[in-house]
Design a protein that fits this description.
6-stranded parallel sheet, globular, alpha/beta, about 35% helix
């Protein structure tokens, strides 16, 4: 029996909804990634800060990290699509945790921007992991049916 961890960063709540759907269907453990210094709530302010941070390669310090990542076999990685890549808190998580030998399953929400370079960027940060096909989902229209269908395709459903 494999142990599953669902790691996610969510600014607007869309990625969190998908993470919860995955948890319900996989019996995994949720881990919400939060930066020590939260992003602003104002949409324009967070867009500007995220753009500058991504361009500068900033990796924010995190408030939350897993205690025992070695016990998990499968790690779902959830992020909003920010400027065609993962949110910087997720990049920090991936850089600070060795996921070698683990199955990594990305999922990402967007407002119409699709997948961008997210799967490629996650794969670069976990080169010794087995990557599964990701789920790109419009955050405002995600459904349990979409998540269930995807989990069946990647053979992770309970």
């Amino acid at each position: 029996m494999t142990k599953t961890l669902i790691v996610y960063y969510s600014h607007s709540g869309n990625t969190e909804k998908v993470a919860e759907m995955i948890r319900q269907k996989s019996n995994g453990t949720l881990l919400k990634i939060e930066p020590e210094n939260p992003y602003p709530q104002n949409y324009n302010a967070v867009v500007e800060q995220a753009k500058k941070g991504i361009q500068a390669g900033i990796r924010p310090t995190l408030k939350t990290m897993p205690d025992n990542i070695e016990i998990y076999d499968t790690i779902f990685i959830g992020s909003p699509n920010w400027w065609n890549t993962i949110a910087p808190p997720i990049a920090t998580f991936l850089m600070e945790n060795d996921l070698s030998g683990k199955t990594v399953v990305p999922f990402y929400t967007h407002g119409g921007g699709g997948s961008g370079n997210i799967e490629r960027d996650i794969a670069k940060l976990c080169p010794q992991s087995k990557m599964q096909a990701g789920l790109s989902i419009n955050g405002s229209s995600c459904s349990n049916a979409q998540v269930s269908t995807w989990l069946s395709k990647v053979d992770i459903a309970k």
